[in-house]
Amino acid sequence: EAAMALAARFAAGVTVIVRVGAGAFVIGGSAGFSGASKLEIVGAGVGSTTINGIYASYGGTLYVSKCTIGDYGIQCFGGGSSVYGFDIGFSGADGLSHVHASDGGVVQLGNYSVSAITSGGNHIFIGDASRVVLAGTVTVLANLTIGSWINADGPFAFCNAGCSFSLGAFSVTGPRYRTTQGSIIQTGGRGTSYLPGSTAGSVASGGQYL
Questions:
Q1: What pLDDT digit, counting tens, does each position of 77-106 carry?
Q2: What is the DSSP string of 12-65?
Q3: Cβ contact 173:148 at 8 Å
Q4: Of 178, 169, 168, 182, residue with least CA distance to 146
Q5: Contact yes or no for 84/108 (Cβ under 8 A)
Q6: Single pTM value for the model
């Protein structure tokens, strides 16, 4: 938290990098950044550094890598706000979602893993006018029970799932997707069995699964 506060003093117009060592870090609420600033959080590795949650809001830009994201997951709110996560892991979701983007927030993820989720939680939730982009390989490291892998619920919400999935011997139980209120989940025509889950999912109220 001290590093975050110090970074905020110098981040006007530049990117400030905070390097986090091994350990579990519980930051009040989540590690966040807002305004016309850019913050990069670099951990000591997915198996070494755990942060309880991160968020970007009100135009903030946040990069995160080489760590596990715990309880609060990644949250991104408001137009102009963005989070970029690569080489990260998700563990738990505190009953919410690993990724929550709404009100115009943008989240891009690549080459990440999932080792736990609160039973019935969403892996990804996308709200009004938000966008989530998935790339690289998503690796599942445990048996999971989900509310849905992707829940797109809001006008102009969009998810581009251009990644591949590696489940190994593990299983994901629950709906693969939900899309409603004009939201779109774009899989490039990979079919209803593409996303992890045990049932196809649902499309309602103008939602599209492509």
A1: 888 889 999 999 999 877 689 999 999 999
A2: BTSEEEEE--SEEE--SS-EEEESSBEEEEE-S-TTTEEEEEEEEETT-EEEEE
A3: no
A4: 178
A5: yes
A6: 0.92
